[in-house]
Design a protein that fits this description.
globular, 146 residues, alpha+beta, 5-stranded mixed sheet
Length: 146
């Protein structure tokens, strides 16, 4: 586990360094590197994150009975952001989830209220190819500090 932690720290440091450099020269390279870095972290440590969430819920008496896995959350609305989520459901459906699309808007009736919908989808391309995976839900949100 020490090796995994070291890889994670080096990856995050590189992401932050490139973000600072790209901001100082006016490029949006930092955003691309952060997205790539978070995707790398999820690919590399997603199973460990999934296990940790399952242990947490078991210890709190709210065990998830279905199959689970960690995938990226890709937010679209006011800007584009990336994070991670655990999805749960029947194994054959969970396997087809590639990301969670987080759709955002403001509530038009009352100002100051923001709405977010978390939709398990079959593709990481949530700008042109949103196809919901019915029968799968989001069971946890993973925040990754950059």
């Amino acid at each position: 586990m020490k090796k995994a932690k070291r890889i994670l720290i080096i990856s995050l440091a590189a992401i932050m360094m490139f973000g600072v450099i790209s901001a100082s020269i006016g490029l949006n390279l930092g955003s691309l590197l952060k997205i790539g870095g978070v995707s790398f972290i999820i690919d590399k440590f997603g199973d460990d994150m999934n296990d940790a969430i399952n242990k947490l819920t078991l210890n709190k008496g709210v065990k998830v009975e279905d199959s689970t896995k960690v995938v990226p959350i890709i937010s679209i609305g006011k800007g584009t952001y990336i994070g991670a989520a655990q999805v749960s459901g029947p194994a054959h459906l969970v396997e087809s989830v590639k990301a969670v699309a987080q759709l955002e808007t403001n509530f038009p009736v009352v100002s100051g209220i923001r709405l977010k919908a978390l939709v398990p989808v079959k593709s990481k391309d949530v700008t042109t190819d949103i196809k919901r995976v019915s029968g799968v839900g989001v069971s946890a949100i993973i925040d990754i500090r950059l």
